[in-house]
Amino acid sequence: MNYFPDEVIEHIFDFISSHKDRNSISLVSKSWHKIERCSRKRVFIGNCYAINPERLIERFPSLRSLTLKGKPHFADFNLVPHEWGGFVHPWIVALAKARVGLQELRLKRMVVSDESLELLSRSFASFKSLVLVSCEGFTTDGLASVAANCRHLRELDLQENEIEDHRGQWLNCFPESSTALTSLNFSCLKGETNLAALERLVARSPNLESLKVNRAVPLDALTRLMSCAPQLVDLGVGSYENEPDQESFMKLMAAIKKCTELRSLSGFSEVAPLCLSAFYPICQNLTSLNLSYAAEIQGNHLIRFIQFCKRLQRLWILDSIGDKGLEVVASTCKELQELRVFPSDLHDEEDNDTAVTEIGLVAISAGCPKLHSILYFCKQMTNAALITVAKNCPNFIRFRLCILEPNKPDHTTSQSLDEGFGAIVQACKGLRRLSVSGLLTDKVFLYIGMYAEQLEMLSIAFAGDTDKGMLYVLNGCKKMRKLEIRDSPFGNAALLADVDKYRTMRSLWMSSCEVTLGGCKRLARNAPWLNVEIINENENNDLMERNEEDEREKVDRLYLYRTVVGARKDAPPCVTIL
Amino acid sequence: MEICNSYSSSSVDSTNPSPSESSVNLSLSLTFPSTSPQRATKQDWPPIKPRLRDTLKGRRHLQREYDTCLFVKVYMEGAPIGRKLDLSTFSGYESLLENLSHMFDTSIICGKRDRKHHVLTYQDTDGDWMMVGDIPWE
Question: What are the start and end residues of every segment in region (Disordered) (chain B) (predicted)?
């Protein structure tokens, strides 16, 4: 029984924006369910195959903003075939047909076609924001339709997509009347850019706050762009192979000086070190710095720059900065919340001194009290260091450690890193995401199951000894949503122990483990509400027709996820849904 | 990437390598210690995104001057111990051959087998034996 009229309740619900909270509200009563669903504007779908567009639209007719995710996370590392799935087209078709007033679409790891983009651009008159992350399947022609037809476009944000570049006339397609842009990111485009069109577009977009250009935008063009957009808050720089001449450099610095609102910098692929120096005038204002593509800038230049970035909250950098560089970060960046250190050298040469070690990590943990998220690629680690880190930083929400050499033990004691990671999960009571690496036995999973009460996502590679390891995690981590495992000795016993556990999880990925076809078939039989997908890129793909003996054959890649709409119909030949 | 191994050919006295019926070969061996060949070709480790992977692969040769070298191990047929040298210190095949000839105290050529000389070969990623000198130095 409601004591307020529906409109009042709806108004109250307006203040509640978190997806989790709104989902909870809808469970209170039938009446609240109805009010909530009719007023819901933003929907997040973590797995596009868990539901279908028709049911989505039926439940949320007032939908304005939709976020969809397609391929599993390990697709980022070439573990999922390109043709696996995650097509956005049926969603756009359904939304268009139902005349949903869509304004915002955010896609991650989905396949997007030019046709989809064209349909999108023509179907939603109020469309404002398109964000594509790690997507593929489209070309700059698709971008051209979005530019041309979305009259109210404010945001076009393309992050790390595979886009076929048909040579830059798409920027010309923004009509002269288009002046509402607040965010434009095309840094992942590989081809040439029509500089004149870009400059005109930026000049007529007074609200532009975020601009990230691609490699092809040279220094003098960047200078001109910044001169007509001093209001920029977030800038992604292109590539500048040669050191600029004195005059160009001075002009660039002058333009940069005027950008007093600039807080975030990124880009810098193939950049001569001097170009970084041009940003000295504003570096003390920076809160976010992404130099993870700046493979040409040596450690000492990086260090010299970061020394002045006292307000940095987010830093993404390559390990060429070294432990010494991280010590500088630790003493300079007291506001640091998120750090990512990526590998700069994939060839594992013995003489490589510049990679980071446990020393850098400990320094950061000691110097940066606000640190809550870390992604750290390093060549070695010790339990002692991890225990110290845990003591220094009990506030970690995300802790991802990747020791480059699989199965590498503590290099001072030759023991496994179970105790180190155990200390992390025990101290960091709010930990939601964890990636483990190095030499690890079942024990580390015992600790994770015991202590990681808030853990939602766990990534395991080359770890564990027996099924017990995986079982500790499945039994212990009540909030687990995404579990992804590769090259670890977990098999059918762990997979099948508690089938109902998968009702509470979004998905499970297992590749190069010990699960067999027979085990997967059994799981699929016992859990019809799961899609159990076997990915096999070998020649004989027809797994269903194999005889009994092949039940013992190990499955190369398994991906299972809960769904309310049954087996998908768009799976390619290399995917078998049991 | 593994480029290594010696030919199985007729055995030759290592101190006095005068070739007999078949010619004797020097072979290059280049190994990356802990990255297995399979993993290297599969490109799924370390777990980094494609854009970063491409960026790192595309690092210009200029970078080589500052940090790393390209060490290879050269074995002479019949000699159990190979010699390690840094390929990046050579400007071309000629200086490489000159240096190797000096190192092994024998005359070495690229190209067709010749009874009088050692021939320099290497094994590529497909496992095929190739003559050194066929492709440009870079």
Answer: 1-50
- Asked if B50's CB is within 8 angstroms of A162's CB, the reply is yes
Query: Does the beta carbon of A404 lie under 8 angstroms from any beta carbon of chain B?
Result: yes
Amino acid at B22: S
The predicted pLDDT at position A427 comes to 98
pLDDT category, A537, cuts 50, 70, 90? Answer: confident
Which fold, A1-40?
A: Monooxygenase (1.20.1280)
**What's the CA gap between A393 and A367, in Å, rounded?**
10
The domain limits of chain A are 1-40
- Number of H helices and E strands in chain B, helices first, is 4, 6
Chain A environment of B50 (Cβ under 8 Å)? 76, 78, 160, 162
ipTM of the complex: 0.89
Better pLDDT: A23 or A348: A23
How is residue A555 written in tokens? 């499955």
Provide the pLDDT for residue A413: 96
A509: nearest Cα among A161, A109, A163, A160: A109
Determine contact, residues A387/A420, Cβ cutoff 8 Å: yes
Give A441's contacts (C-beta < 8 A, 6+ positions apart).
Answer: A416, A418, A464, A465, A469
CB contact under 8 A, B49 and A77: yes
Interchain proximity B33–A348, CB inside 8 Å: yes
- Residues of chain A with C-beta less than 8 angstroms from the C-beta of B56: 295, 343-346
Q: pLDDT class for B115, splitting at 50, 70, 90?
A: low
What is residue B100's predicted lDDT score, i.e. its pLDDT?
A: 79
The pLDDT tens digits for A373-429 are 999 999 999 999 999 999 999 999 999 999 999 999 999 999 999 999 999 999 999
Q: At what angle do helices A358-367 and A383-392 cross, to 10 degrees?
A: 10
- Restricting to B residues 17-36, those with a Cβ less than 8 Å away from any Cβ of A are 32-35
Q: How much is the pLDDT for B17?
A: 41
